[in-house]
From TrEMBL:
<feature type="domain" description="SecDF P1 head subdomain">
    <location>
        <begin position="55"/>
        <end position="149"/>
    </location>
</feature>
<dbReference type="InterPro" id="IPR054384">
    <property type="entry name" value="SecDF_P1_head"/>
</dbReference>
<dbReference type="Pfam" id="PF22599">
    <property type="entry name" value="SecDF_P1_head"/>
</dbReference>
<protein>
    <recommendedName>
        <fullName>SecDF P1 head subdomain domain-containing protein</fullName>
    </recommendedName>
</protein>
Length: 152
């Protein structure tokens, strides 16, 4: 009788474990985790290491998703070599995350995606420590970016 209870208990634990494992697999398919792991579990500026993204963000610089809520200002600038310069000023919090990523990724490519399409993939030469950025884009892409990320 005791052996039967022991076997039943072990089977119940196995079923519970299988259900937990299945639940985590289903949950992981619902969300795309983009983790900013800078090695050793460190994170830039005490900001969360992982950002859960349910939808594709309109602007993605490396693993950093940038939304209209992260923008102080965004405006068109002059034309340069047939491209429109877009002036972007980020809030300090998102700029710190981008700074942490670039500081630990010098020498690596950093993809910039707009609306899911890679528009640039420069190699990081040095950490980006500013809140203000200039990005050269085609006229149409620049207009779309400004329309999607304008904070007003």
């Amino acid at each position: 009788m005791a052996v039967r209870k022991l076997i039943t208990g072990i089977m119940a634990l196995g079923v519970a474990g299988a259900l937990v494992w299945t639940g985590t697999k289903i949950q992981s398919n619902l969300y795309e985790d983009q983790c900013l792991d800078l090695g050793g579990g460190r994170n830039p500026g005490n900001f969360p290491i992982c950002v859960v993204v349910q939808n594709d963000p309109y602007l993605l610089i490396g693993p950093i998703a940038i939304t209209a809520n992260d923008i102080v200002s965004i405006k068109p600038g002059a034309l340069s070599s047939g491209n429109r310069i877009v002036h972007i000023e980020l809030k300090k919090e998102i700029a710190a995350a981008l700074s942490g990523f670039t500081r630990h990724s010098v020498g690596q490519p950093m993809a910039m995606k707009i609306d899911g399409k890679t528009v640039s993939s420069p190699v990081i030469r040095e950490a980006i420590e500013s809140t203000k950025y200039d990005i050269a884009l085609s006229e149409e892409t620049a207009k779309d970016l400004i329309a999607h990320l304008s904070p007003d």
